[in-house]
Amino acid sequence: MRPLRRLILAAATVAGVLLLGTLLEELAPGDALTDLALSPHLSVAARAQLRERYGLDQPAAIRLGRWLAGTLKGDLGFSIAYQRPVGELIWPRWKRTALVGALAFLLAWGTALPLAAAAALAPGSFWRRALMWLDRIALSVPTLALAPLVIAAVLSLGWNPLRAGSAALLLSALVLGAVEGSHALPPLTQAIQAGLSRPFVRAARARGRLWPGVLVHALRAESPKLSSLAALAVAHLLTGAVVVEAAFGYPGLGLLALEAVVARDPHLLVATLGVVASTVVGANLAADGAVLWLAPPASER
Amino acid sequence: MLHRPRSAVSFGIFVAALLLGSRAPQELTVPLAADPRTFCPLFATDQASAAVADLLHADLIRVHRRKGVPTANLASQWRWSEQHRVLEIELDPQRRFSDGSPISAADAVFSLQVAFDPELPVASGALDLVGGESPKVEALDSRRLRLRFAEARPGVERILDSLAILPRSRYQQAWQRGELEAAVGPGAAPNQIIGAGPFKLESYRPGEELVLVENRFYGKRDPAGRALPYLDRIRFVVLPDQDARLLQFQAGGLDAIGPLAPADFRILANSQRRGRTQRWDLGPVLGVEFLWFNLRPATGENAAPIDPIRHRWFSDQRLRLAVELALDRQGLAQSVYEGRATAAAGPLAPDNPFALGREVAHRDPAAAAALLEQSGYRDRDGDSVREDAQGHRLRFSLITNAGNQARESTAAFLQHDLKSIGIDLEIVPLEGRSLLARVFESGDYEAALLGMAGGDPDPTLALSFVRSSAADHWWAPGLKQPGSAWEAQLDRLYDRQARTIDPTARRRLVLELQELLAEQRPMIFLVHRHLLLAASRRVHGYQPAPLFDFSLWNADRLWLGDSQPGGS
Fold it and tell me: From B243, which residue of chain A is nearest by alpha-carbon distance?
């Protein structure tokens, strides 16, 4: 029952995000074709016909219902701004964001885990306090400021980071990874410290086991918490991607979502929200699965 | 095995020959602020679409982007007869579509039927220019066609500008099925977009880039007999962010950029000094900035859902005049636009032959205050803000684009000037679409600050907003009948000038129309923005023009580097 309940909850979360997105889109004045007002020579009949063609003359509930029905058949709708099926737009962008996210995750956790382990092994030490202070400073730098700083630094070196394919990818991953790493460091330190204070880990230490082995025990013991933290990181990385992709002009899902909002492109907006929400929910489900697998409930042991 | 050394030598010679015989690829890289929504100029309602579509397609007659006069494009010549009602056009036999097929009169007739199809969202204004009635179009033979207009109107050749000639065999069925827009849109396969422009579409990655390659069948030659275009490719990079475009240009990733904001133009002065780029200030042709009051009728279908007290204020001509007198346009041009704008006396750019040509009125707060006093607006409670005769504070809101730095600064500037005559202006920046929805749909606003892009200088197109029925009749759009006697007179003057062939008589009517507009001041024109452009010095043949597309209108004659155009 529990996995089924989780699945229903996950589906309800995605549906809630879609409903909220549609509602907000509906509440804002204007729509995807409002800018045609600046094309005064377009006839009234042609305007009305365009609205009808894209379903903008229909109430929001009907539009959302039709879009959901189409989505169940694998059709994510049609983008008014790009004049092509939404599915063709979303998947290439999703793959790019997934690549940036994966690189950023590796960078963030690849740096934060060893630092957290070292900090957990030396509680109360000067360098741990210094590390945590540094982390707090890093946390207080918003992504919105960090990205332009990195661009300015790279430009001053004579490189052109914008739109240069791999350079934009690496710099986006660097900024996202730095922000995520600073977020992940304190909870990772706490988790490892909690692992190290478990009786069997303390016993292993007392019996003279070497630190690497002890750490592996501690990490294993805290793997459910680490899985949850990883799922949280996916959500952070996806939301951070909007800012970073916009700053570097990296054509990923974040930039596409921003463009959909600006263009008030209803299908693209709802589909992008749906994909982002599904990815976050999917990561949480994966984390739940990992928790179950790594630490099954007491009754099943 | 025995042949291997000889093969290697042959291969080496082949490669060497290739290297010696080849030239560096001529690839121009330019930015696009948004993804194009169509690849056909007929349906282009945004600048990104128009910029790309104009390179893929060709029209019969084109308004010269620098001289402003109609010039031959696919038409080799044209002739008016029957007192300016019949236009005969002969096609240039050298020109072909990008798939190599010849361009016949049947293609032109088909394309003009499409352009005047009232069912299609054609954005060119062609129907407006001919009074709403489509011309009768017929092919006289394979190379000649005739257009018969219902009545004589001035400047009708201009309507053919941007009416793309499409291959009938490829698009007729799509048109009949009502699928033409999709067939010429970004969703179509690149090799299915066929036009007669200097370039053809090679690839398009939404949100990233769009690559055009030369149309080998273009058929135009330069005076030295070299085939045009000189460029091999044009790469459009989609860069919605203005700062990103500037950074890319500075880093050498773009060959041309513009229109630029005054601050960005100033920033590029350094790279100009270093000899890497060139900048151009083409003067006050980019468009006019203006503010207006909501003058929708108080009741009825298009009624303004605003406070009736404010509606009464705005309907008072003396208040509108007082606002105008309080504004320091020269100061605005200097401070907000860093001198890259010219104070506006009316809607038309100063160098337009139909412009009023009068001096811009200087700021006169004393005269403005006197007018307000006469209308009964006095500061009765000593708080520096006037009240009307009923004691209502003279306070209203002004909506403008959020995020548009120049408009937000202009609004603050206006707020300061109006404060000096006792008017309390509240600035409300709104996101673009919300702003347009209020202006054109709900009518729920008091005053607004926006700008019009400079387009075709012909007054029938440039002044079409004065018609009370116009969709962009800013102060009260889409009225079924004019709201006042002076608005009815504006309608009459507009219609008369649009039917007057004699240039002197027409100019007189256009001036009279502008005088009436200035007298009533439903709109207060502030400044004409300067068109600011920059290009890398490696681009040759670059001749920025005051008409859109300012940079690439002569893309078929641009080349890169120090070699001769089209040379090896």
Answer: A247
- The CA distance from B178 to the nearest CA of chain A, in Å, is 11
- Tell me how far apart the alpha carbons of residues A234 and A227 are, in angstroms, rounded to a whole number: 11
pLDDT value of position A296: 53
Interface touch B433/A264, C-beta < 8 Å: yes
Amino acid identity, position B503: P
Q: Which residues have C-beta within 8 Å of that of residue A110, sequence separation ≥ 6?
A: none
Distance from CA of B386 to the nearest CA of A (A): 33
Q: Does B128 touch chain A (CB under 8 A)?
A: yes
Question: Cβ-count burial of A92 within 10 angstroms (0-12 exposed, 13-18 middle, 19+ buried)?
Answer: middle
Tell me the C-alpha distance between B12 and B9, whole Å.
5
Residue A144 scores a pLDDT above 80? no
Q: To which H or E segment does residue A13 belong? A: helix A2-27
Asked if residues B236 and B206 have their Cβ atoms less than 8 Å apart, the reply is no
Distance CA B280, CA B530 (A): 10
Q: Where are the domains of chain A?
A: 98-260
* Residue numbers in B near A157 (CB within 8 A): none
Q: What is the mean pLDDT of residues A95-124?
A: 90
Q: How far apart (Å, rounded) are the C-alpha atoms in residues A205 and B462? A: 84
**E strands present in B368-476:** 395-401, 424-430, 447-453
Kindly list the residues from chain B whose CB atom is less than 8 angstroms away from the CB atom of residue A50. 121
* Closest in B185, B252, B433 to A35, CB measured: B433
pTM of structure: 0.85
Give chain B's largest Cα–Cα span: 109
Contact B341, B528 (CB under 8 A): yes
> How much is the ipTM here?
0.76
Q: What is the pLDDT of residues B82-122, one digit of tens each?
A: 988 999 999 999 999 999 999 999 999 999 999 988 788 88
Radius of gyration of chain B (CA): 27
